[in-house]
Batch of 2 targets.
Target 1
Amino acid sequence: MAQSVLDAMPAASTGTLVFTGPLNFWGGRREAAREGAPSEAVYEPATGRVLCHMTPCGEEDVDAAIRSARAAYLQWSQLAGMERARVMLEAARIIRERREKIAKVEVVNNGKSITEALVDVDVAWQCLEYYAGLAGTLSGQHIQLPGGAFAYTRREPLGVCAGIGAWNYPFQIAAWKSAPALACGNAMVFKPSPMTPVTAVILAEIYKEAGVPDGLFCVVQGGAETGTLLCRHPAIAKVSFTGSVPTGKKVMEMSAKTVKQVTLELGGKSPLIIFKDCELENAVKGALMANFLTQGQVCCNGTRVFVQRDVMPQFLEQVVKRTKAIAIGDPLLDGTRMGALISKPQLEKVLGFVSQAKKEGAKVLCGGDMFVPSDPKLKAGYFMSPCILDDCRDDMTCVKEEIFGPVMSVLPFDTEEEVLQRANNTTFGLASGVFTRDISRAHRVASKLEAGTCFINNYNISPVEVPFGGYKMSGFGRENGQVTIEYYSQLKTVVVEMGDVESLF
Ligand code: NAD
């Protein structure tokens, strides 16, 4: 067999090898995309080096992938849930066994720190274990009807689902989408972001090794064009999309043409509210977790930090001190806490938000600049120092728009009523957070925040048992938790007559 992507990629970080094989996967093996399509360079964010090339899939490729997925679906959907669970548990075991290697590849392709990438990989195998556990529990209802008649419901898979992912959690997103899909008996054709094409292929190779039928989890590479082909394809039953609001709207529109089910996991501009009665050190730590994981490129980040005026000076002093101490640099080193942003354009976009904030009157308390690590091999990497913005107002661009970089906007407030109104004054609704010691206030505020998640006295905790998803323009549908079974299955009602037919005709 050809060298696996997992074996080939890590060497790239040493600067000695660039992976050259095809990065699509269907019919149980890696496949090259159609001839003639121009390939695109994929970069290593920490060094700016070309890591590999990705050729976007065209119509024939997407058709081939979907055909192989359909064939696999016909076999897989006939298995009992417990049989599917066994295969998924084996895949989880393999991921766990290779967690360090997979995390290293994720770092090389994404730029996040190895410490975070290891957590992402762990979350991925936990997700497979969780949905393997649920696969055997899928069941319907029995409903007694008059005259001995009865009905029952069957929970059935949807068919071939498409997964379209963002670049910030490449391996984890592929697992979050495929695990519930496969547990319910579906097949999945997954399209990663063109900037992070690699680790989804590793997942495909692992699923195959674990024993899924060839074609059950396919990977097609490409950008908008390939994504469009998936959303328009009549043989796709559902699209689960993670990405920005503008793309999400297009996905929904295209899916409507053939009435596909859609899950949209979109962007956010989440509020984090810090009341004066909180445990301040925890609130400061929470604010950092809410803003700086994965270089601030996290959809549910609490980037509007509302601080009650009385504790503002202490909060700012502590948060700035801790932010300045964040170790930025080689993401493959254990001690690094912040790696590189995904791309040069993304870095420039985020720095542009900081300049705009300054023009609009915000004060930079720290960071907000390009960062050049001392290690010569990282000189061309896309690093930036994490930024705290003070003197922010609700009407500023940095407070209204999703920045998707390490920029925290701090806003003072006086009363609970006022802060709730301001926190909810956004078209987004992905997440929210509150720090307070007053339990009544904590639950009251949680109930009033218009967001799919509210964290009380912590932030950015997303275990697989807990549903995750948005309100308002941050999307709909959920990932993780038991409820996601409903987004990857459909109910069939079977009505059984036990007597004679009473006909009106
Ligand atoms: P994006 O919308 O640019 O791209 C997302 C995916 O959609 C990519 O795979 C891309 O190739 C594909 N795509 C682009 N145009 C398409 C089209 N016309 N049809 C079909 N597919 C198309 O987003 P991004 O820049 O990759 O990711 C950042 C965004 O994702 C942020 O807004 C972030 O908040 C959001 N995000 C949300 C979640 C969540 O769970 N809610 C998680 C991670 C990221």
Target 2
Amino acid sequence: MTATILELRRVCKGFERTIAAAELSLAVGRGEFFTFLGPSGSGKSTILRMIAGLERPDSGQILIDGRDVVRVPPWRRNLGMVFQQYALFPHMTVAQNVAYGLKSRGRGRREVERRVSEMLELVGLAGMQGRNATVLSGGEQQRVALARALAAEPTMLLLDEPLSALDEKIRRGMQTELKRIQRRTGTTFLYVTHDQEEALTMSDRIVVLNHGQAVQCDAPEAIYQRPRTRFTAEFFRGCNVLDGVVASAGAGRLRVRFGGVEATVDDGRAAAPGAKIGLAIRGENLHLGMAAASCPIRLAARLDEVVYRGTNIDYRLGLADGQSVVATSTRREPGENGGAVTVGFADAAVVLLDD
Ligand code: ADP
């Protein structure tokens, strides 16, 4: 792990009716693309605003480069910010917008010009210096906002849902662009989004938030494949959450019963036989048709619904114990609505949840 650039220590922040940060502790490494992910109202923006200095925590510490900044005003924190609204100066050109922060820091004309073209080149707007900022498309305006924020070489760049106002295709393109720009500059990015795909695509690590609490903090693949809590599992599309019962336990292994079958899970935890346990299985790890036949665990299910989603097809299945799951396949599988099908999976597809 690289050196820590940001540390939150037991940060609390409450409003009249809600909690935006509950004893929140986390550390971000220098150069990381770190994402705060959670549903609307989970505290993401407030946490970012506290890091920026626009809100003050009720208690706890916020350390940037090892120094507690809770009492340091925003303009002394040397942070860049990009929001959903581009907030460009409408009466200024692209170059004037990008140069704004540099001029106010008293840099010379030559240096400012050089830095402006460097930044515009970085964000893919080379040669656009003279354009009026507001005649640009949404995607281009966001690039200008990004160039403006990065021009002053901030210690960290804070981005709050910066792509939400863009339409799907441009948003996807900008995801790749943002990641490229982050890699090229090596700047630490703190990114806020409610969009799981955006978080998975760009981040080095993601913290999942629920009512101001860090539910899980991990690399995208770990969060996606191995959610630790029911909340994280349910937050990601395509993950089935089921109730199981511990059938037997020993040597860090559990036999878990659900849907009329048992699976062995080898994650080192202990639990008493008979205990209830939550578990998660991703839809793409549940197989139907030919693929089910070669799986170590197979169970009988009823096909309740088939939903065509383009690349994937979702099969909603009723299990013997009354629970239901969705299996995802790229193929049209045999079976009719209401008919019997076999669903198969491997023991390793089963993830045990902490709550
Ligand atoms: P998110 O960014 O995850 O949508 P926010 O940080 O914006 O969440 O908000 C977290 C909670 O705090 C929400 O319930 C919101 O209504 C509340 N909140 C945010 N700012 C204020 C404020 N200035 N006054 C009162 N409540 C606020």
